[in-house]
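Side project, low priority. Logging it here so it doesn't get lost.
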Amino acid sequence: MSLSNTLDRVDADLAAGRVPMARQRLRGLVSSFPYDLTLRRRLAEVYRLYGDAAEAGRWMYLEEDRDAVETAAFEERYGSPGWRMKALAWRGPEALAGTAFAEGQLVAVRTACSEALGRSVDWDDPASYDEDAYEAHEGPDGGSRLSGVVAAIGAFLGVTVTVGVWIRGVIALFE
């Protein structure tokens, strides 16, 4: 299906009140055409229909005429530069952005992410800005993975002992 056919379907979906379907189609188009700022703008419009300022800000982040409240909501929801890189779903060099403002935004996010992680990152290599992949010694809450493993083993042993006692009680009942 061509881009124009899909956009026609988006328009038809919106006219019929099928906002989730329009959103799904636009998300697919942005994924296929990450350099098309018009698609990102249309997706932001759909998120405004949901009243989701953070997602509207996400998809308008590369636009100079973006709304400051939406931008702030996006930056708050995606608090780290690595999360913002993931959320922007950009691929390739920043020069493909189409506008100087968009290019500057992409460079700023990538640079902030590189500085925060202490290494270079690349839009085409999501693993390079995946913060979790490099935190092997810490879990998401900041605790060590070892403490998580110990807790899991303790829970397993607790359940095993409880089931064993229950089975022993049932056997004793019939003796």
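Brief comment: Residues 145-174 form the longest helix (30 residues).
Revisit when time allows.
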